[in-house]
Design a protein that fits this description.
The complex is a heterodimer of chains A (about 260) and B (about 650).
Chain A (H helix, E strand, L loop, with lengths): L2 E12 L2 E12 L4 H11 L19 E4 L2 E4 L13 E5 L6 E3 L2 E2 L2 H9 L18 H11 L6 H5 L1 H4 L11 H12 L12 H7 L11 H5 L6 H18 L1 H10 L5
Parallel strand pairs in A: 1-5
Antiparallel strand pairs in A: 1-2, 3-4, 3-5, 6-7
Helix pairs in contact in A: 3-6, 6-9, 7-9
Chain B lengths: L4 E4 L2 E4 L3 H12 L4 E5 L15 E2 L11 H11 L6 H20 L14 E2 L9 E2 L5 H24 L6 E5 L1 E9 L2 E9 L5 E5 L2 E4 L20 H8 L4 E2 L4 E8 L13 H4 L3 E3 L23 H7 L15 H13 L9 E4 L6 H7 L1 H11 L8 E10 L2 E2 L14 E3 L16 H24 L8 H12 L15 H15 L6 H18 L12 H25 L22 E7 L16 E7 L5 H4 L4 H7 L2 H4 L2
Helix pairs in contact in B: 1-4, 1-11, 2-3, 3-11, 5-15, 13-14, 13-15, 14-15
The chains are: A alpha+beta (about 260), B alpha/beta (about 650).
Chain lengths: ~260, ~650
C-alpha cells in the first residue's frame, strides 16, 4: 500500500471571518478527500467542522469546494491529485458560512417549501394507481437527486448574486417543478395550478440561461438542463405565447388511469 | 435553574429517518402539534442508504403472495424469535403503507400492467420488494420529506406559519428524555450549530433514532448510528430486548480500506448475481442448513432456472437469509478460499448484459466505478460481511409501539426490538419503518391528547443535571497525572474491540475480554476532553455520543455472553447449534446503575443488568399457518403440545 503525506489547505473560520490553514496529513491508497478531513479531525484539529453522513455518495451531505470546484468530498478520490499538489478545501461559496466547511443551506429548504406539493388525482384510491414505466422514468431521473445542493452552489444566477436569491428557486427546485409537471398522475391543473407558468412567473425560470453548470457538477449525473429546465422553458414559452397549445394541453390531458 | 429556551409540543419525534418521519406525519394528521428533531439535515437520514426495496405482499408479480406468506417468511428469517404480533401486524399492513406513498407522489418501478413492480430478495418466497432501481431508501425518505413539506404548506395557508403544527429541528441532538415520576415530560436538546441548549416540553416522545453500527469498525452505517435512542430509553428506565442479535450483512465492500463496510445491495443477488470463492466455485450450495433444505435448489442448473420459472424450481442458495450467507462467506475466507482482499467474489458480469446491469443496479455500478475503480459489468466485486442492523432494541408493546414501563415513551423502526426476531429479512426494514412509524405516531398523539390539561411537568433538577452532563467534556481535568482522553481515539478503540470480540463469530472468553475493555473505556471516557467552543464542534458531539455507544455495546456483549446457543444474528463458536429451549427466552437489558452512568466501572457489575423473560406463546391461528414438521425444528416440546 502506498502512503504519503499530502499538503492540504482548509478554510477555517466562522461568521466573523476566517482564513485558509495549511496542513500536512497522511494519505493511504484508495482514500477520498473526506477520509483526509476525518484524519485531520482525529489527529490535528478535533473541532474542525464538516457535514457528512453516508460516505457513499448517497446522502449529499459532504458538499464542499475542492480546488474551487463544487464536489462531494466522499466521492473525490485522492488518486485524482498528484502527490505534490496542494489540495484546497473550502465551504460552498453560494451559502453563508456557519463554521469551517459547514454552511447555512436554509435557502434550499425555504425554496423547497415554495414549490406546491404533488396533487393526488381525485377518485383514484391508494392501490389503484396505474402508470407505465416509460411514463414514470422522466420524473424518476429527477428523483435521483440527493439534495447535495452543488447545482444551487454553482449556478451563476445566485453564486455571486445574493440579490437574485429571492426570485430564483435554483436548478434543484426548478427541476422539482419539472418532476411534478411530468408526473403521470399529478392533478395540479385541476386545482387551477399551472406548474409550467409558475416556474416562469414565481420561481425565476427566466433567469436561467442554460449554461449547464448545474448538470456538470451533478454527482448523480442528472441532465438537469437538458431534461428538466429546457423542456420546462419550452412549455412555458408555448403556454405564454400560444393559446392554441394551451387549450390543446388542457383538453387532451389524460386523467385517472 | 438553568436559563434556556423552552417550547411546548404535543409529540416530539427523535429521528428523521423513515420511522420518525412517518410517525410525525401520523401524529400531525391526528391533530397533535408535532416536533421532529434530528442530528443531520432534514432528508439526510440513514434511510437514504436502503437500496433493495420495501417488502409488502401486494402480489403484483406473483399473485400467490399474501400477508400469511409474508408472515411465515418473516418468522422463518427470524428463527421464530420474533414478537409474533409485530410480525403479523407488519405483514398485514405493509401493502397499505406502500400504496399510501404513491398518493404522496412516490414513483416506484412498474410492472407491464402499470402496477408497482416487485423484486426477489433473500428469504422471501415470492417477488415482494417494491423498489426504485437500487435507491429505494432515497425515494422513501424524499416522499416522506415532501409529504411533511406539504403538511407545512397546509399550515401556512391556514395559520400563516409553515411551522404552526409541524416543525423539524434539524442538526439538533437529544441527550436526555425528561420525566416527572415515571412519565415522560420532555426532552433535553442541544443545537449542533450553536451549541445552545433547549428543552422541548412534551408528554409523548417517539424514539426513532435507528441503530448502533458505529460501535463496530466495519459497518455500513453512517455516523449518526450511535445507539442514541437505545441509550435514551435505558436512561429513562425502559428495557432493551435481545440486544445480542446484530445483523452482519453478507456483502459489504472490502476494498479499498476507506470504503470497507459500505453496503453492496442484496438486489445484486436477487437479480441473479452469484457468490464464488477463489476456486471459482458457487460455494453457497454447501451451506444450506437443515431447516431450509427443502426450499433451496440443489444444483446450479435448478437455481438458474428459478429466475424464469419460480413455480417449478427452487431458489438458489445465494438467496438464503442474511445470517446464513454471512457465516458462509466468513467460513470460506477462513478456509483460505477468499478473494485477494479478504472477501469473496460477487459476480453479475457473467450473468446479465452490461446494459441490464446499468439499468437495474445503477447505484452499485456507480459506487464501484467511483470508489474502487471496478466496472461491475465486466468483472466481479469483492465483498465480505459488514455490521448492518441491530434486531434488538427497545422493548415495546406490539400494537401501540409504547416502550414498556415508561408512559409517554414510544419507539419505532430499528431502535425498537422484537419485530425481526434473531435476524431481519432484507426489505422488511423499510416496511417496518412505515408500519410501526405510523403506529407510534398514532398512539403517541392519542396518549398526548388523552392527558389534556394534566401534563407531566419538567423537573428543573433534571434539566440542570442534563446541562452539566453535556458540558463536562469542556472541563475534563487530568486525573492522577493522566491527560484528557481524545474522543476519536476512544471511539476507534471501542469499534476495534466490538468488531474483534463481539463480532460475527463469538466466543465466551472474548466476550468477557470485551466487557473488561468496555469497563476500561468507561473510565477513560469520563476524562474525554474537547478543544474549542460549542459551535459546530464535532469532537464535542462525539464525546457526548460515546456515552450512548458504551451503554449499548455493553448490552450487546452481556446479552451475547448469556445466550448459549447460535441463532440468526448471534453465532457462538462454543455453542454452534440452535437450541429450541432458547426460543422462548428473551433477554432484557436494564440500567443497573442508579447514578446513571457515573459509577460502576467494574467489568463484572457494569452498568447493565440482564433479566431473562419467557415470551407469550404464538397465537394458535398463526401457528396453524406452518406445517407441523417445520415447527418441530424450532419450537420446544412443550410448545408443540400446548
Amino acid at each position: 500500500m502506498t502512503t504519503y503525506d499530502a499538503s492540504f489547505r482548509v478554510w477555517r473560520g466562522d461568521t466573523g471571518g476566517g482564513a485558509l490553514e495549511d496542513f500536512k496529513v497522511e494519505v493511504n491508497e484508495g482514500e477520498v478527500v473526506l477520509d483526509i478531513i476525518h484524519r485531520l479531525q482525529a489527529t490535528q484539529v478535533p473541532d474542525l467542522a464538516v457535514r457528512w453522513n453516508c460516505k457513499a455518495g448517497k446522502c449529499g451531505s459532504c458538499s464542499a469546494e475542492i480546488n474551487g470546484r463544487p464536489r462531494l468530498m466522499c466521492m473525490t478520490r485522492m488518486s485524482v491529485f498528484s502527490h505534490e499538489e496542494t489540495i484546497t478545501v473550502t465551504p460552498l461559496r453560494a451559502f453563508p458560512v456557519v463554521r469551517d466547511l459547514v454552511t447555512d443551506v436554509s435557502f434550499n429548504y425555504q425554496k423547497a417549501r415554495e414549490v406546491p406539493a404533488f396533487v393526488p388525482p381525485k377518485g383514484v384510491a391508494a392501490g389503484e394507481y396505474r402508470m407505465q414505466q416509460v411514463d414514470v422514468e422522466r420524473s424518476q431521473e429527477f428523483r435521483k437527486c440527493i439534495e447535495c445542493f452543488l447545482c444551487q452552489d454553482t449556478c451563476h444566477v445566485v453564486r455571486d448574486h445574493e440579490e437574485n436569491k429571492g426570485a430564483f428557486a435554483g436548478p434543484r427546485f426548478l427541476m422539482r417543478i419539472a418532476e411534478l409537471d411530468m408526473h403521470p398522475l399529478d392533478a395540479a391543473d385541476e386545482t387551477g395550478l399551472d406548474r409550467k407558468r409558475t416556474a416562469q412567473d414565481e420561481h425565476g425560470l427566466g433567469y436561467c440561461n442554460i449554461t449547464k453548470c448545474c448538470t456538470e457538477v451533478c454527482p448523480e449525473h442528472i441532465k438537469i438542463t437538458d431534461n428538466a429546465l429546457i423542456p420546462l422553458k419550452e412549455r412555458a414559452v408555448d403556454r405564454k405565447y400560444d393559446p392554441l397549445v394551451w387549450l390543446g394541453n388542457k383538453i387532451g390531458r389524460r386523467s385517472g388511469s | 435553574m438553568t436559563q434556556l429556551e423552552r417550547q411546548q409540543w404535543d409529540v416530539v419525534v427523535v429521528g428523521a429517518g423513515g420511522a420518525g418521519l412517518r410517525a410525525a406525519i401520523e401524529a400531525r394528521e391526528q391533530g397533535a402539534r408535532t416536533a421532529v428533531i434530528c442530528k443531520s439535515l432534514f432528508g439526510k437520514a440513514h434511510t437514504v442508504m436502503a437500496e433493495g426495496g420495501i417488502a409488502a405482499s401486494m402480489g403484483n408479480v406473483n399473485s400467490g403472495d399474501n400477508w400469511q406468506v409474508h408472515f411465515r417468511d418473516t418468522m422463518r428469517g427470524g428463527k421464530f424469535l420474533n414478537q409474533w404480533r409485530m410480525a403479523e401486524l407488519h405483514a398485514r399492513e405493509a401493502p397499505d403503507r406502500v400504496w399510501e406513498l404513491e398518493t404522496w407522489g412516490a414513483l416506484f418501478d412498474r410492472t407491464a400492467d402499470g402496477r408497482i413492480s416487485q423484486r426477489n430478495f433473500g428469504g422471501h418466497e415470492y417477488p415482494r420488494l417494491a423498489h426504485v432501481g437500487d435507491r429505494t431508501g432515497l425515494e422513501l425518505i424524499r416522499t416522506l420529506q415532501q409529504k411533511i413539506v406539504s403538511l407545512q404548506q397546509d399550515d401556512k395557508r391556514e395559520f400563516g406559519d409553515y411551522e404552526a403544527r409541524l416543525k423539524v429541528f434539524q442538526e439538533c441532538t437529544v441527550t436526555r428524555v425528561l420525566k416527572e415520576d415515571d412519565r415522560v415530560s420532555g426532552a433535553f436538546c442541544y443545537e449542533r450549530e450553536s451549541g445552545r441548549f433547549f428543552v422541548l416540553e412534551a408528554p409523548a416522545v417517539v424514539l426513532a433514532t435507528g441503530g448502533i453500527g458505529k460501535s463496530f469498525k466495519v459497518t455500513s452505517n453512517s455516523w449518526e448510528y450511535t445507539g442514541d435512542g437505545h441509550a435514551l430509553a435505558l436512561l429513562a428506565g425502559a428495557p432493551l430486548l435481545n440486544m445480542e442479535f446484530v445483523q452482519f450483512h453478507p456483502t459489504g465492500m472490502v476494498w479499498p480500506p476507506s470504503v470497507k463496510g459500505i453496503l453492496v445491495t442484496e438486489s445484486v443477488r436477487g437479480d441473479g448475481g452469484v457468490l464464488r470463492n477463489s476456486d471459482g466455485k458457487r460455494f453457497m450450495f454447501d451451506y444450506v442448513p437443515d431447516v431450509f433444505k427443502e426450499k433451496y435448489a440443489e444444483s446450479e442448473e435448478e437455481g438458474d432456472r428459478w429466475y424464469e420459472d419460480p413455480d417449478h424450481n427452487r431458489r438458489p442458495p445465494e438467496l438464503l437469509p442474511r445470517d446464513e450467507v454471512a457465516r458462509a462467506i466468513n467460513s470460506e475466507v477462513k478456509a483460505g478460499r477468499g478473494s485477494p482482499h479478504g472477501g469473496v467474489f460477487l459476480d453479475v458480469s457473467t450473468r446479465m448484459p452490461a446494459e441490464v446491469i446499468r439499468r437495474r443496479l445503477p447505484s452499485m455500478h456507480h459506487q464501484f466505478k467511483e470508489l474502487a475503480d471496478v466496472d461491475i459489468t465486466v468483472e466481479p466485486m469483492e465483498v465480505g460481511p459488514t455490521c448492518h442492523y441491530v434486531m434488538g432494541g427497545i422493548a415495546v408493546e406490539s400494537d401501540t409501539a409504547a416502550a414498556r414501563g415508561v408512559p409517554g415513551l414510544f419507539a419505532a423502526g430499528e431502535v425498537a426490538g422484537g419485530m425481526h426476531g434473531s435476524n431481519r429479512l432484507g426489505g422488511n426494514s423499510l416496511s417496518d419503518l412505515l408500519v410501526f412509524g405510523r403506529r407510534a405516531g398514532l398512539h403517541a398523539a392519542e396518549y398526548a391528547s388523552a392527558l389534556a390539561g394534566a401534563r407531566p411537568a419538567v423537573d428543573e433538577a433534571q434539566v440542570d443535571l442534563a446541562a452539566a452532563e453535556a458540558l463536562r467534556p469542556f472541563s475534563a481535568e487530568p486525573q492522577e497525572g493522566a491527560a484528557p482522553e481524545n474522543p476519536y481515539t476512544l471511539h476507534q478503540e471501542l469499534q476495534q474491540a466490538m468488531n474483534d470480540l463481539v463480532g460475527i463469530i463469538r466466543r465466551d472468553a472474548e466476550m468477557r475480554q470485551a466487557l473488561e475493555k468496555l469497563a476500561e473505556l468507561r473510565v477513560r471516557a469520563r476524562r474525554a476532553g474537547v478543544e474549542g467552543h460549542r459551535q459546530f464542534n464535532p469532537g464535542w458531539h462525539l464525546a457526548l455520543d460515546l456515552r450512548n455507544m458504551l451503554l449499548v455495546s455493553e448490552c450487546v456483549a452481556r446479552a451475547a455472553l448469556e445466550r448459549t446457543e447460535s441463532r440468526g444474528g448471534h453465532t457462538r463458536e462454543d455453542w454452534p447449534a440452535m437450541d429450541r429451549s432458547w426460543r422462548r427466552a428473551n433477554l432484557l437489558c436494564r440500567l443497573a446503575d442508579p447514578t446513571e452512568g457515573l459509577a460502576a466501572t467494574d467489568p463484572v457489575r457494569g452498568q447493565i443488568r440482564l433479566v431473562r423473560e419467557e415470551t407469550e406463546p404464538i397465537r394458535a391461528d398463526l401457528l396453524a399457518l406452518f406445517e407441523k414438521e417445520e415447527l418441530v425444528k424450532y419450537l420446544a416440546e412443550e410448545e408443540l403440545y400446548e
